[in-house]
Amino acid sequence: MAFTMEGGLSECTVDTNCVLVEWEVNEVKQSYENLLGIASQLPRTKVLEQTNNYWHAVVRSLVFRFPDDLEILQIPNEKVVQVRSASRVGVSDLGVNKKRVERLYNQL
């Protein structure tokens, strides 16, 4: 788990291969459940951990099979869902993580 002391997901250490967003939602639990359903269906995705509030998976790239960590955290008392997508390898992801997070938001 990549949590900060404040209880959120860890900040990105490299901005060129990581995206961290926070969405304010009215129905946190429902939005979280919907996101898990959408994220679980992403191609080449393997879920590593799932709890009531936290979900973590590895999504591999199509050609070279590079691993990206995808994390989703619900913070019910703040009516917030956080999503973090980060490459494990390299300093640039060519925008893949940002596109992945945007796709999740658009499908939500």
User: Ranges with pLDDT <50 over ≥5 residues?
Assistant: none
Helix/strand structural class:
alpha+beta
Helix content: 10-25%
Question: What best-fitting shape do the alpha-carbon axes yield?
Answer: globular
| Spatial strand sequence of the major β-sheet | 1-5-4-3-2
Strand portion: 25-35%
Instruction: Please work out how many helical segments DSSP would assign.
Output: 2
Order of helices and strands: EHEEEEH
The overall average pLDDT, rounded, is 93
Largest sheet: 5 strands, antiparallel
Ends distance: 23 Å
Query: How many strand segments?
Result: 5
Rg (C-alpha, Å): 13 Å
Give an overview of the whole structure.
Helix content is 23%, strand content 34%. It is of the alpha+beta class and 108 residues long. The longest helix is centred in the first third of the chain and has 13 residues, at 28-40. It is globular and about 40 Å long. 21% of the residues are buried.
Quickly list its features.
108 residues; alpha+beta; five-stranded antiparallel sheet; 2 helices; 5 strands; globular
Give the secondary structure arrangement, pairings included:
Blueprint: E1 18-24, H1 28-40, E2 45-50, E3 54-60, E4 67-75, E5 80-87, H2 96-107
Antiparallel strand pairs: 1-5, 2-3, 3-4, 4-5
Summarize the structure.
The chain has 108 residues and is an alpha+beta fold.
